[in-house]
Design brief:
Blueprint lengths: L4 E5 L6 H11 L10 E6 L4 H8 L4 E5 L16 H7 L3 E4 L2 H7 L3 H13 L3 E6 L3 H5 L3 H12 L5 H6 L1 E4 L13 H19 L1 H6 L1 E4 L8 H5 L6 E4 L6 H9 L2
Parallel strand pairs: 1-2, 1-8, 2-3, 3-4, 4-5, 5-6, 6-7
Helix pairs in contact: 1-2, 5-7, 7-9
């Protein structure tokens, strides 16, 4: 049985003071890790403080991005070596905002995913279509291409241990959300694509999150679906009360 995973994606929000206060309040009240994996993916400037504040607890820390090289003349980038040294557990890769605003390609995301595994960091690989693509009947081709290319060349064991976040772009930060059946059908399609590429065993093991205006009042409906194993949550993860309600709903 796949263990649920709830990961907050703080994006470019909060201050260091806010972030540490969040960690201090939440870390002792997170449900036991035997029930759910809980993480917050924070801006890079907060990571050292957060991993120190949450050491030995069931609240894990993730990064929001990572470069695909260990070191070098890459001004402003963050390497997997740096993240590993800080004790980061997860890294979000291929978020739609990275694809749209910074021109990240499937090939680049694939390279970063492989590098994360090399350094013992669990990648949360994001895929998702725009409203135009969905309404234009391109959902399947877009998701198949993103999933296949982003995971290309991974081993079966690696696929079993990564997390895929299906996030319809039209439902991120818009207040809109897919119905639970739409979300289930989409996550099932991602799983089917993985099965075709890596086999049934890998597809049954990989955890697939839904992301897109997930809130405490709708998460139970999503989590009741057989192919949804958690959520990648934006705005609802910025406040301790809301984040804890998400975890308690599992």
């Amino acid at each position: 049985m796949r263990k649920p995973i709830i990961a907050g994606n703080w994006k470019m929000n909060l201050t260091l003071k806010d972030a540490v206060a969040f960690a201090e309040e939440v870390k002792g009240t997170v449900p036991a890790s035997s029930k759910v994996d809980a993480a917050v993916c924070a801006p890079s400037v907060f990571l050292a403080h957060l991993t120190e504040a949450t050491a030995g607890t069931d609240l894990k820390i993730g990064a929001q991005n990572m470069y695909d090289q260990e070191s070098g003349a890459f001004t402003g980038e963050i390497s997997p070596v740096m993240l590993k040294e800080l004790g980061v557990t997860y890294v979000v890769l291929g978020h739609s905002e990275r694809r749209e605003y910074f021109g990240e390609t499937d090939a680049f995301i694939n390279s970063k995913t492989k590098k994360a595994f090399e350094h013992g960091i669990v990648p949360i690989v994001c895929v998702g279509e725009t409203l135009e693509e969905r309404e234009g009947g391109k959902f399947e081709s877009v998701i198949r291409e993103q999933t296949t290319n982003s995971l290309k060349g991974l081993t079966v064991d690696q696929v079993k241990n990564l997390v895929v976040a299906y996030e319809p772009v039209w439902a991120i930060g818009t207040g809109k959300s897919a119905t639970e059946q739409d979300a289930q059908d989409s996550c099932k399609f991602v799983r089917d694509v993985i099965a075709a590429e890596f086999g049934t065993e890998a597809a049954e093991a990989v955890r697939i999150q839904y992301g897109g205006s997930v809130k405490p009042d709708n998460i139970k409906e999503y989590m009741a679906q057989p192919d949804i194993d958690g959520a990648l949550v934006g705005g609802a993860s910025l406040e301790t009360g809301s984040f804890l309600k998400l975890l308690e709903a599992i």
